[in-house]
Amino acid sequence: MIGKARLGTLLVALALVATAACSNTGSEKTVQVYSGRHYGEEETFKKFADETGINVEFLFGSDAELRERIEAEGENTQADVYMTVDAGNLFLAADEGIFRPLESQVLTDAIPESLRDPDNLWFGLGVRARTIVYNPDEVRPEELSTYEALADPEWKGRVCMRDSSNVYTQSLVASLIAHHGYGDAVNILKGWVANETEILGSDVLVLETIAKGGCDVGITNHYYLAQQLDEDPDFNVKAFWANQDDRGVHVNVSGAGVTKNADNADLAQQLLEWLATEGQDDFTNSNHEYPANPDVEPDEHVMREFGNEFKRDPLGSADYGSRNADAIRAMDEAGYE
Ligand SMILES: [Fe+2]
After folding, report:
1. 86 Cα to the center of ligand 1, angstroms
2. pTM surpassing 0.85?
3. Nearest CA-CA partner of 86 in 281, 320, 326, 331
């Protein structure tokens, strides 16, 4: 439950964002999006409004706060769409019952089964790879192989990773549980901990620490490296696709669903369908994500820096998303902070 005082603060903060963030075409039709994903959606929503005449009003906030807000607002919620990053967040939203199932041929045709909820409560729209990154002055790519191998003694004192409270970490660990079972996943985590892995509060910090020589190797989402390379083409960190000789690199999604109490469910579905098709370029390019729709090419920058030829872990995002609580427990048990 959300505390009254906290909800009050939240409502004020979100209301301020809302006023600043409406794209108005003069049309009567409006769809409201609560978004925990903040990677340049403004421009994408504006384009949707221009092309369809449907306005998009949106509130940005943290993933958990927006979920709590939709729950607290109940039938009176303004939210037609909840958008967020990571299958862990999408699963939690579905589990809390805030989505409605969609019957949409467009969405089921556009989005592969592994990137959407089995009951069509949410759909992945952008794909991010969470992979190994390294300082090329300190590490040769031949020395790297898997997430699991970062528990080997040769990496002691050389690894930086993201904290356990972060959903990206939780989903990667959830995928280890899905593949190895709970006990073996805890042992891998214990290996990381025994290697004195340095735990940092953001993916950007992991990359910056590696670039400065504070760590030799780490794990981050690929688009953070793409952003660093946008700013500095000589940024001294490279990506290595993890686990190519077995299951493939862990991929996750950003995505959305239509809320159970949406006043404008049809318009909301139209927005999702557009984002999964004509709007895929805009939605994913703003954050250098890979398109979820396999018919759409990744942007030129992503192709240049990372390419599209790598093996992806086929594990369904709904599968590891549903193991979120187990992942948190496993990290606690292993002493991974
Ligand atoms: Fe992110």
Report:
1. 9
2. yes
3. 320
